[in-house]
Structure formats: C-alpha cells, structure tokens
C-alpha cells in the first residue's frame, strides 16, 4: 500500500508525527511540481505550504486510492489556481477541479518511483513526450499546445492519446518486472 | 460509431491530462459519466497522466525545507495542543488564523525558525512569506469561489437525475432550479453577432431575454442560464446583435418546451 495512505489515516486522527512523516516523504514532490509549473522557488514554497496546510486542515478531502496521485493533483490544481490568477484570458483556462477524482485503481502506480516514470517517459517518441509534459506542467489548453508547438490540433490530440496509452503500457510492464 | 462520438473519445485523453478548457471539460466529463467505453479509457489514461507528476520530484535545499517544515509543524502543534479537529477548522480559515488568533503560534514560528538558522535573515524571510501568504490567501479565496461554481455546474451536468432535452447542436440540461445550454458544434457567427438565450415562463408566450454568448473556435459552449428553472416552461436560442436584444430579432435556432 502507498505509505501515504496509512499516514493519512493517522493525520485524520490529528497525529502530528504522521503529518511530519508525510511532509518528509512528499514535500519534494509537491515543491518540484510547484517549481516546474510556477518557475520560481518562492512560489513553489508558497504552494508547498498551502498544499500541506490543506492536507492538515481537510484530510477528508483524500478519499482513498493512491496518495501520490492525489497529492500531485492537488499540487497541480493549486499551481493552476496561481497561474489562472495571472492569466490574461481567464476564460480559456483549464478547470482547477475535475470530477471523478478518487475513481482510479492506482495500486499499480503506488509502486512506481520517479526514476521508473522518467525511464518510461523516455521510451516515448519526443513529440508525444513533449506534449504530455508541456500539457501537464504548463497549465495550458490543447489549443495552446497546438499553437506553441506549431502542430495541427488533431495531431496534438492523437499524439497525447497515443502517448498516454503507450506510457500506461510501459509503466505496467515496469511494475511487473 | 459516428464522427461526433469519435471526436469525443479523442478528447478523453485531453481531459485525462487536464488540458481541456473549462467548458469542454464539462462536456467530456458528462460524456465519460454516461459511456462505459469512455470511462475505461479515461481511467487508464488518467492513471498514466497522474504519474507524470512524479518526474517533477527533486531535492529541496535543506534551509528551505526546514523553514517550510517549521512553519507547518508550529501550526500543527498548536492545533494538537488546542485539541482542534480537522472538521472544525476548514482550510478557508487559514488566513484568519495566520493574521488573527494565531499570533502566539506565529511567534512560536519565529522562535523555532530563529533557533534553526540565522536570526535576521530568516525573520526577513518570514515577514516576506507572511505577505505572500496574505496575497495568496486572497487569490485562493477568489479561485475557490470560481472553482465552487465550476463544481456545481459539473455536478449538475453529470447528475443522473438531470433532465436532458436535445436541441440543435446541443442539449438543454435542467436540474432542480438550474438550467444549462451545452453545445458541441454551434456555427461561428459574423462579427458583431452573438447567440442569445431566451426563457419563456410557464403559462406565458413572450420570451424573456437571457444571457448572450459566443462558442469557442470548435463550436463548444456551456452556458448557465440565470433563471429559476422551476418557473420556466420553454427555452429558445437566437442570433442577435452584440449586446443582445429585448425581443428576438431573428428566427430562433430552436424553441424547446421543457416538458
């Protein structure tokens, strides 16, 4: 089981030591997401503080599944909030919250580490990998992806779909090895 | 499988990665919720998209890491000492705590930080962080309000108990006292023209002007109508001059009784 899941059970019971362990285990991930998306350490630090404080004050927001996946989405959504507050055209932004959270079967992915994911991503063709990374960390829409990469919109859709499928298959193989 | 369905399936990957604009995301979410094949595809691709985040993990310099941890743990310890439960302290109260009743805890933060590292530098850092926190808290409060509206819209669009009425290029969705237009392929309009929604109260014939809007480049639009849906007998859509009209000036694109 994802160690974060067990720690969250204790955090719900107001266990400060569990929260500290949670911070020690996952703050590098949250900070890293903030740094990739917001581009500067001070903003990443703000984001890390906000995300972990949210975990402490509202632990019931985590409803099971993979803690890593959940906390990553929380961090990404908070970073999108910050980007949205700076956006010139807010109506084109992607939504901060999506439904269906917690519906995933993430047991397999709980056993992945950053290096395995990087290795799996490296197996993708560069054009698929670039779109997926820019899409996830860039906080931009698919139209913006098409514009920035000078790629037709239909091609962007196909590359992202094929890339995610291939990544999913590759990750499954690596976990079973 | 028709072209529209294939197009929607193509967008499931974009939705899983989180790169769809808000209004398109609402449509795709509704599609996924009502289509088993789309749901399977979404769960697979969403899992793959989620792990991409892990590539961002990287070392944090020890001073910064200790500073963040001390701030958080000061708050956590204060909560534990006060016997505060998670449910009685929602996240929205964080800013109030930071600036108001949390002065003692803030003092504890300062003390802890000072004992961890250099005094003057970190005091300055803390003051800067407090200012940033205040700004961020204001931004987050605004964003939370927008996100709450989005969540309600998405919940309504996905709800099994919502009533759906097919119309030209889209669907009218009614849930409780709320009404939405969702379109997937509205034709583009010439400059200076907009689409305008109309509501026709129960027992009446004259349409009441509602919101004006334009679809995006793909012809997609999700519009919440500011009307009490329980009092609306029919809805309509027409093309009007920019700024809208008091009564329809063109033949309506559709008139749809909500029965």
Protein described:
Chain A is mainly alpha-helical. Chain A folds into two domains: 1-105, Orthogonal Bundle (Rna Polymerase Sigma Factor, Chain: A); 112-177, Winged helix-like DNA-binding domain superfamily/Winged helix DNA-binding domain (Arc Repressor Mutant, subunit A, Orthogonal Bundle), CATH 1.10.10.10. Chain A has eight helices and no strands. The model of chain A is unreliable at 88-105 (pLDDT under 50). Chain B has a four-stranded antiparallel β-sheet with strand order 1-2-3-6. In chain B, strands 5-4-7-8 form a four-stranded antiparallel β-sheet, with no helix packed on it. Chain B is built from seven helices and eight strands. In chain B, helix 2 (22-33) packs across helix 7, helix 4 (62-82) packs antiparallel against helix 6 (103-116) and helix 6 (103-116) crosses helix 7 (119-158). Chain B folds into three domains: 3-55; 59-141, no CATH class; 163-257, Sandwich (Immunoglobulin-like), CATH 2.60.40. The model of chain B is unreliable at 88-121 (pLDDT under 50). The chains are: A mainly alpha (177), B alpha+beta (259). At the A-B interface, helix 2, helix 3, helix 4, helix 5 and helix 6 of A face helix 1, helix 2, helix 3, helix 4 and helix 7 of B.
Q: SSE order of chain A in H/E notation? A: HHHHHHHH
Provide the CATH top-level class of the largest domain in chain B.
Mainly Beta
Quaternary structure annotation = heterodimer
Q: What is the straight-line distance between the termini of chain B? A: 30 Å
């Amino acid at each position: 089981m994802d160690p974060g899941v067990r720690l969250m059970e204790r955090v719900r019971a107001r266990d400060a030591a569990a929260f500290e362990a949670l911070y020690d285990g996952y703050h590098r991930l949250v900070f890293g997401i903030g740094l990739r998306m917001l581009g500067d350490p001070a903003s990443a630090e703000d984001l890390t503080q906000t995300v972990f404080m949210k975990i402490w004050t509202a632990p019931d927001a985590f409803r099971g599944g993979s803690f890593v996946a959940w906390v990553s989405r929380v961090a990404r959504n908070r970073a999108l909030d910050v980007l949205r507050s700076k956006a010139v055209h807010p109506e084109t932004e992607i939504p901060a919250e999506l439904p269906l959270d917690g519906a995933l079967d993430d047991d397999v992915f709980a056993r992945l580490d950053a290096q395995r994911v990087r290795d799996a991503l490296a197996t993708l063709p560069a054009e698929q990998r670039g779109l997926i990374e820019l899409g996830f960390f860039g906080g931009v829409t698919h139209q913006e992806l098409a514009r920035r990469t000078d790629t037709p919109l239909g091609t962007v859709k196909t590359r992202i779909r094929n890339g995610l499928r291939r990544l999913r298959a590759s990750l499954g193989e690596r976990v079973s090895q | 499988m028709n072209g529209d369905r294939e197009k929607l399936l193509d967008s499931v990957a974009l939705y899983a990665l989180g790169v769809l604009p808000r209004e398109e995301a609402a449509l795709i979410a509704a599609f996924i919720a009502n289509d088993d094949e789309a749901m399977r595809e979404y769960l697979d691709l969403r899992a793959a998209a989620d792990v991409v985040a892990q590539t961002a993990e990287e070392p944090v310099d020890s001073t910064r890491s200790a500073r963040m941890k001390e701030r958080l743990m000061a708050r956590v310890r204060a909560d534990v000492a006060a016997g505060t439960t998670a449910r009685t302290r929602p996240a929205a109260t964080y800013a109030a705590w930071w600036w108001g009743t949390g002065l003692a805890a803030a003092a504890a933060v300062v003390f802890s930080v000072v004992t961890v590292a250099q005094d003057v530098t970190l005091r300055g850092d803390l003051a800067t962080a407090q200012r940033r926190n205040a700004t961020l808290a204001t931004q987050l409060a605004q964003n939370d309000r927008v996100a709450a509206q989005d969540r309600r819209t998405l919940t309504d669009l996905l709800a099994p108990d919502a009533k759906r009425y097919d119309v030209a290029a889209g669907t009218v969705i009614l849930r409780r006292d709320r009404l939405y237009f969702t379109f997937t392929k509205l034709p583009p309009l010439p400059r200076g023209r907009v689409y305008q929604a109309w509501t026709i109260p129960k027992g009446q014939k004259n349409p009441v002007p509602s919101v004006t809007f334009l679809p995006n480049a793909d012809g997609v639009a999700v519009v919440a109508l500011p009307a009490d849906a329980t009092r609306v007998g029919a809805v309509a859509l027409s093309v009007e001059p920019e700024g809208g009209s008091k009564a329809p000036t063109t033949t309506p694109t559709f008139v749809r009784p909500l029965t």
